[in-house]
């Protein structure tokens, strides 16, 4: 069972609401759909006085007694809402254990708040694992100058992450990012490693009209954190370095 949405692709070249263009190139929507349809993801819920950090698992429930070994712990204000397991592996065959990291950072990259929790995520579940009071957030900076970012590093090394803004992207006090790029040859294409000095929103990689494939695009770059993207193309490395464009929302806003 799956999900269909309108509309997937174009039957001729043109501007449209499809997620894949006529030439088979993914638009921003298709990369967003790929992230949203992951079987494990982080989401945020803002209320009048708090922000809750959820983890959603669409992984199948294959255990017969998934709740028998779970205990619940809870605190107030900046709250650890997570379930902890006494015997995590014996009856829970499709759960995810790991470390949930939460940061409030400025757009320039200054860490204003940081917390890490060891958690157990049950299969086929959606629940909050941490709560931050609004008073905790607003004491650091204006809401247009900060981001909540969260990542869940599983014991097997896989990482899921997401971030939350308290205003629309166009209202963020973004500054022009300086994005450095290193290119390495791999089978079938190249590996691009990118790093920005400040927060870079919706970074887009493109080679103009050339039909190439990226394993990720239209992504955020956190300050001073590297991100690796694979590009699949037959282009020579000199041509790639000359033609590739690296742009972010800041560039689109200031056209």
TrEMBL record:
<feature type="region of interest" description="Disordered">
    <location>
        <begin position="63"/>
        <end position="93"/>
    </location>
</feature>
<dbReference type="InterPro" id="IPR041447">
    <property type="entry name" value="Mannosidase_ig"/>
</dbReference>
<dbReference type="InterPro" id="IPR017853">
    <property type="entry name" value="GH"/>
</dbReference>
<dbReference type="GO" id="GO:0006516">
    <property type="term" value="P:glycoprotein catabolic process"/>
</dbReference>
<protein>
    <recommendedName>
        <fullName>Beta-mannosidase</fullName>
    </recommendedName>
</protein>
<dbReference type="InterPro" id="IPR041625">
    <property type="entry name" value="Beta-mannosidase_Ig"/>
</dbReference>
<dbReference type="InterPro" id="IPR050887">
    <property type="entry name" value="Beta-mannosidase_GH2"/>
</dbReference>
<dbReference type="InterPro" id="IPR036156">
    <property type="entry name" value="Beta-gal/glucu_dom_sf"/>
</dbReference>
<dbReference type="GO" id="GO:0004567">
    <property type="term" value="F:beta-mannosidase activity"/>
</dbReference>
<keyword id="KW-0378">Hydrolase</keyword>
<dbReference type="Pfam" id="PF17786">
    <property type="entry name" value="Mannosidase_ig"/>
</dbReference>
<feature type="domain" description="Beta-mannosidase Ig-fold">
    <location>
        <begin position="174"/>
        <end position="252"/>
    </location>
</feature>
<dbReference type="InterPro" id="IPR013783">
    <property type="entry name" value="Ig-like_fold"/>
</dbReference>
<dbReference type="Pfam" id="PF17753">
    <property type="entry name" value="Ig_mannosidase"/>
</dbReference>
<feature type="domain" description="Mannosidase Ig/CBM-like">
    <location>
        <begin position="91"/>
        <end position="166"/>
    </location>
</feature>
<keyword id="KW-0326">Glycosidase</keyword>
